[in-house]
Design goal:
two-stranded antiparallel sheet; seven-stranded mixed beta barrel; 4 helices; globular; single chain; alpha/beta; Glucose Oxidase, domain 1
Length: about 200
């Protein structure tokens, strides 16, 4: 069973305050031109995307520098629904192995498209990020626009330990009840600090 965790990219999707609004323009029509084609204009942090350390660290790696194997892994779901902050207590009695992909479900994707989504989103604590670093996870994903707010200390903790970040996930609720699942999070191979990604979970139990 495959579960799509990716927001659809379209020209009306919301962006982080201050980012450039996306454009998706049809430049050729199959009836008039014999082909269909589109032009896209977007920041790399729009919609479901992956951040690499170069996003905030001087000398940090860009996303295209990672081997493709890095974007596959065993998934672990952390249920943080109803919380404004995810702290280390949520990691108690949860088995997390080195190189796992940890997905934090706040249930916040239901606000996607509303002003509230970027104003009052829940976050993780610095201790939560540090604990993931100690455990050696590969990627942290969330159904929020960011794991934290300025000055983005949790971001920096994760990046310093080479942990990638997936933002703006959706449909994490569909993973509840699936004991074991794998995650594929393939970003476009741009020479940039971040890129849009198609993120999919595969239930294996």
């Amino acid at each position: 069973m495959y579960i799509d965790l990716t927001h659809e990219f379209n020209a009306s999707m919301p962006v982080f305050p201050g980012d450039v609004a996306p454009e998706l323009v049809k430049t050729a029509d199959v009836f008039k031109d014999g082909i269909s084609d589109y032009q896209i204009k977007s920041g790399m942090h729009t919609g479901t995307h992956i951040d690499a350390p170069a996003h905030m660290l001087v000398g940090g790696k860009n996303l295209n520098e990672y081997p493709v194997a890095r974007f596959f892994g065993q998934g672990v779901l952390i249920d943080a629904r109803g919380k404004s902050m995810a702290d280390v207590d949520l990691l108690e009695n949860v088995t997390i192995e080195k190189n796992d992909i940890v997905l934090v479900m706040f249930g916040w994707s239901s606000e996607f498209g509303n002003d509230e989504y970027y104003l009052n989103y829940p976050v993780i604590t610095e201790n939560f990020g540090s604990r993931l670093a100690i455990l050696g996870v590969s990627i942290l994903g969330l159904d929020t626009p960011s794991p934290d707010r300025a000055p983005y200390q949790a971001h920096k903790i994760l990046f310093k330990h080479d942990i990638l970040i997936i933002e703006n996930l959706t449909n994490l609720e569909a993973l509840v009840g699936h004991g074991s699942f794998e995650v594929t999070a393939l970003p476009a191979k741009f020479q940039t600090d971040a890129a849009p990604a198609r993120v999919v979970a595969k239930s294996i139990s």
